[in-house]
Specification:
With about 150 residues, the chain is mostly helical. Helix content is about 80%, strand content about 0%. It contains 5 helices and no strands.
Length: about 150
């Protein structure tokens, strides 16, 4: 078990969570449908909860928290938000393109989590549990987004 590796993995996922919080807040501002506004606002709050759980785990490993005071997430997150803006501006169906972008973002973080969880033997059980719980929540959000795409397409 390597706490340095666990801290690194947790930090990477925390940064993606910050991107998700900001992405969902942006998505909530851009959609016209009250149901989707509420959904995206809820997703942003859930992602903040995941970030808080990861930060608590980081603290238990003696690492500083990853905060939202950074420059709006990772570089990849900035690119993700750019494409959300770009697709929304160009699309004739704003809602559909935003849902597609949210789906893409959720699939990306799930892939990253799967990569991290392949190395679970390098992490304390508590870190693995935090990441598995987070992954389940994000996976459920992906299902909700996919259902919304069916409804709004």
């Amino acid at each position: 078990m390597n706490n340095d590796k666990a801290r690194e993995y947790l930090k990477d996922i925390a940064e993606l969570c910050i991107d998700g919080v900001e992405g969902y807040k942006d998505a909530a501002k851009k959609v016209d449908t009250p149901h989707l506004k509420a959904l995206f606002t809820t997703f942003a709050k859930e992602r903040e909860g995941i970030l808080n759980a990861i930060n608590q785990e980081l603290a238990s490993l003696g690492a500083p928290a990853v905060t939202q005071g950074r420059n709006d997430g990772t570089t990849l997150g900035a690119v993700h938000k750019f494409w959300l803006d770009f697709k929304a501006a160009l699309s004739s169906d704003n809602t559909e393109s935003i849902l597609e972008e949210c789906e893409r973002g959720e699939k990306y973080i799930l892939d990253e989590m799967d990569d991290v969880l392949k190395n679970k033997t390098e992490m304390p059980i508590s870190s693995v549990q935090v990441l598995q719980d987070a992954r389940y929540t994000i996976w459920k959000r992906l299902e909700t987004i996919e259902h919304a795409e069916e409804v709004y397409s």
